[in-house]
Amino acid sequence: MTNHLFNGLLETGLAAPERRFAVLTNGESFTYGDLDTMSARMANVLVASGVEPGDRVAVQVEKSVQALVLYVATVRAGAAFLPLNTGYTPSEIAYFLTDAAPRVFVCDPGLQDTLSEIADKAGAAVLTLGRSGKDGTLAEQARNAAATFAPVPRGADDLAAILYTSGTTGRSKGAMLSHENLLSNARVLKDTWAFTPDDVLLHCLPIFHTHGLFVATNTALVSGAALIFLPKFDLDEIFVQMPRATSMMGVPTFYTRMLTDARLTRELAGHMRLFTSGSAPLLADTHVAFEKRTGQRILERYGMTETNMNTSNPYEGERRAGTVGFPLKGTEVRIVGKETGQLLPDGEIGVIEVKGPNVFSGYWKMPEKTAAEFREDGFFITGDLGVVDPDGYLTIVGRDKDLVISGGYNVYPKEIEAFVDEFPGVVESAVIGVPHPDFGEGVVAIVVAERPIEESALLASLQGHLAKYKQPKRVMFVDELPRNTMGKVQKNLLRDAYSGLFS
Asked: How far apart are CA 60 and CA 72, in angstroms?
């Protein structure tokens, strides 16, 4: 029996160990042979620290190649990888460690004193790994550890990772992802996006999130491709490194920021074969502007923590702005009525449900929550609202929890946002519902503008496009919208901020 995920991800790379795996901005590079050796050393350290098959390894460290190697080493050792956002506070870390009960917790050396007591209470041994990836107790012990390690046998259904949801509302839930969940999705994305060993991926995403860790990294690994590994998104470095890359994965804010810089030209990006975007909706205007500037059309796709990637616009064929394309091979996607659970015809808005080898097995230690999120036929209820057009393209309308019910009518924020965003001077918008004494919820548009805009003028512009019940009752202007690390607008914070607007 092999280690399903480790052997599957590295089959191509280790067949040519001299091939580049990662390149840093300072010119330092690592081969797939280096990845093999480094992950073996770290796996030996984890086992020496008490890690056994099925144990969790929790990690809160800055992005580095060594931090990525730690993910590979954890899988190799038969444990489950638990990445934690570097922005989490000690109290948040305490919750995750208590809930997941990891055998080992890896943190930054500078936070060891603060977090050691929390880890001790959770029963986790503490190792440290610094920003450079070369300092800390894990790095030190790895340098002295054996350079070989036989991958611990693990099957397709064994636990490979736990990713906690953002926790913007209620208790954070740990999504349990199996070896096959991750490997099958990586293989499908490799084929869907035509990745080969000749590709060089410009990697500027964080690796504590599914986008940077699983979508970007796993797709590159299973392809035997190379990574240009940036610690973070940095415009200057993006433009320096792009001539050496063939593809880039990003979130919408990456592309909007690139468009503000005159260095983004057709000449600079012309050799790139693929730009993808996800984690948050990409405005149609951004699609158009990016294609006009570079000659490249961004490919948008749809996924979530619990399911990995579900759909993608085609690599070959029409990439429709505002849509997330078609179901990936092996994944079923359907639209159902929220109340009835019955299949809806194309053109009607409903709840998106998915089924396939990419879909997680459930939430860690939450059997009741897991049962509530799955249909009897195995479909996962995403909580996203969507609609399929006559050609089969899926459009995400919003989150079920973001649905506004005003005067008994359903209002879908994305529909209104599309019209608001077209108004001259509007940069972006977010539509929310807040308590209203007459209508239950009142529709409110939160707007970022590049110049002063009269509220009355914006509202007047919507009258010919939207039914009365859909039209915002107020427009509030802000300097910026609150976002999480991956660029998603945090509408829950906006709802809280304006909850008393009509009281």
From this structure: 15
Bridge partners of 178, per DSSP, are 159
- HEC secondary structure over 136-157: CHHHHHHHCCCCCCCCCCECCC
Q: What is the DSSP letter of 45?
A: H
Q: Is 431:497 a contact under the CB 8 Å cutoff?
A: no
Report the distance separating Cα 448 and Cα 479, nearest Å. Answer: 6
DSSP 3-state of 100: helix
What whole-number distance in Å separates Cα of residue 138 and Cα of residue 140?
5
Q: For residues 331 and 170, what is the distance between their CA atoms, to the nearest angstrom?
A: 29
Report which residue type is found at 69.
Answer: V
Q: pLDDT band for position 299 (50/70/90)?
A: very high
CA distance 362 to 273: 36
Closest CA to 335 of 380, 373, 387, 402: 387
Residue 217 has pLDDT above 80, yes or no: yes
Strands 299-304 and 308-312: antiparallel
What average pLDDT does this structure show over 116-125? 96
pTM above 0.90, yes or no: no
Spatial CA neighbour of 80 closest among 99, 63, 102, 113: 102
CA distance 8 to 184: 9
Consecutive H or E run containing 395? strand 394-399
| Distance between CA atoms of residues 408 and 397, nearest Å | 19
How far apart are alpha carbons 370 and 86 in whole angstroms? 27
CA dihedral 165, 232, 7, 378 (to 10 degrees): 20
- DSSP letters, 209-260, are SHIIIIIIIIHHHHHT-EEEE-SS--HHHHHHHGGG-SEEEE-HHHHHHHHT
Q: Regarding predicted confidence, which is higher, 441 or 326?
A: 326
Do the Cβ atoms of 305 and 175 come closer than 8 Å? yes
Q: Which long-range contacts (CB under 8 A, 24 or more apart) does 33-37 make?
A: 35/10, 35/69, 35/72, 36/10, 37/147
C-alpha 299/C-alpha 255 separation (Å) is 12
Q: Would you say 50 and 125 are in contact if contact means Cβ atoms under 8 Å apart? A: yes
- How far apart are alpha carbons 53 and 204 in whole angstroms? 31
What's the one-letter identity of residue 409? Y
Instruction: Name the token pair of 372.
Output: 């509530």
Angle between helices 65-76 and 4-15 (to 10 degrees): 120
The one-letter amino acid code at 466 reads L
How confident is the model over 291-299, as a mean pLDDT?
Answer: 96
Q: Which candidate, 220, 221, 160, places its Cα nearest to that of 36?
A: 221
Q: 228: which 2 tokens? A: 């240009």
pLDDT reported for residue 199: 98
Coil, helix or strand at residue 191: helix
